[in-house]
Amino acid sequence: MWHRAITNVSNARDWIWTASSGRRQDQVAIEMEQTAFPPSWLPLEHLKQLKVPSMWQNTEAAAFAGLIASFPKGAAVLHKNMKQYRRRLELLRERPNMDGKRVLIIDPMSSQGRLPSQIARIAWRLSLIARQSNVQLDALVWNNNISAGIVNAIRPWYKRLHLSPAKGPGYAMRWSKLLARLRYCQYSAVITWQELQVGFADRIAGDLGVPNVRRTLGGVRAKGLALNKGLARKLVNDYTSDRRGALPYSIVTNVREAMQQAIVVGFPLFLKPLLGTGQSAGMATELLSGRINDMEKLQAEVTRILGDDIAWLQMAKRSNTRLRHLIMEPFLNGPEIFAETTVMGGVPLAVSLRASKLPRRPEAATNLPSEWHWPALLEEAEAAECQEAARNIVRALELQNGVFGIQLVLDRKLGCTFLEVNVRPHNWDMLHDTSAQLFLQPDLWHYGLMALMIALGQPPHAFMHLATKPAMRLSAFCCGNHRESQLIHRETLMFYRLATMQHDIVNNTCTVVLWRQEAVAMWDVRHLSC
Description:
Helix content is 36%, strand content 18%. It has 19 helices and 15 strands. The protein has helices at residues 2-8, 25-33, 44-49, 62-69, 74-80, 82-92, 117-132, 148-154, 171-185, 198-207, 229-239, 255-265, 295-306, 309-319, 380-397, 429-432, 434-440, 447-455, 490-502; strands spanning 15-21, 101-106, 135-141, 161-163, 189-191, 250-252, 269-273, 326-330, 336-344, 347-358, 370-374, 402-411, 415-422, 472-478, 510-516. The strands form three sheets. An eight-stranded antiparallel sheet has the order 1-15-14-11-10-9-12-13, with helices on both faces. A four-stranded parallel sheet has the order 4-3-2-5, sandwiched between helices. Helix 7 links the parallel strand 2 (101-106) and strand 3 (135-141). The protein is globular and about 60 Å long.
């Protein structure tokens, strides 16, 4: 088994720890949803038992400190690097005084009548940052399917809650009254974390008199980016026509069109929904084709995807679109790179390559595991190429202000190539958690603080600490059913580790490896297999 191959070299100078677990993904998801997020899910007794330094106990950093201390030598490494961690934590805690300005957040949690945990974490941290920075944070929440429990849950996070009017007779008049109240409050900025609300938040900001230079999307062409992958691809192609990164693509609605356009796009190719959020790599994987090498597979995949009524209905609820259109693109062969990008006034301030994912799909006929790395596992030249690609995407799509989640693929032939843009940050704890940044990331900047400062037109450079040197990096390797796992929450990795401490399951595993930063040049996965 491949995880034994890692264990055999674990005594080498550059390896630190390995762990494996076969905990079922659905069990992890259920337990994760039941997990409280502020400040940490790890019990204090467990942290003391693992000899976690008292500095981390009862703090958000305990989440990662507990994970690290659960490995052999983990607590010793924490103590050894305590001075470095303390300094990095101080940098992440720096806050400006914003003079009591008022900011309106378009609250994302109530839009579907529930509290998605990953978005709730971001909103909770944003409210905490606002208090620490002397900002009055109010919220506009939706009155559709919203329960009193949700209202009570989010009320402590905001100074004032505005409820949108319910649809029905007199809706336009009630909405006009609400808009008048919002204008009376004299908000200086409008923020949202949810992609579907970005265009709406932009319009609200305009109605409230927020200057265009401080709003999210720039040109009129960019307004549909939240949903339309064809538009995003066209804009990037137009901008990169004389550079690497322009890809042929086609929009198809049936098998006949797909087979005709496959000649233009070329094999191997890939199909995904044209409209909707999160449809390139992570969400609604039943609507993704995987690699298609020939006409026979293309015909089968188009028929399967367009005929999956349940999956399309679920996407329609999530993305407010019912069009069953597919976008056909060349299949990009290489790791996916997640570039969290801060932009102010159309200028990229930082492109942080926080993670890379190398999927090993069943159709590839390989026994290699899928790989996740935090931060992205790239050589110096590759990292520079991907950062420049992200900057070009910002310019091509006319993004103006905010934190954007840009997904790239480091293709073997085309180099670092555009896959998808999220007109908000990725809602992934492993990318935005301050604790994950503290231990693993070279770029230190707080998402909530960046959002507030950029929305208010205050340059955040003094609170961005780029190209620092964390002591460690984290990797995960998944086999069996877990090869398609989305390791986007810190709890998922912790459950793998804690389960391993109780019993070792060798099939359907995800193995977590924590290792020294300087070991990057020595990494070679070719000797591993599932």
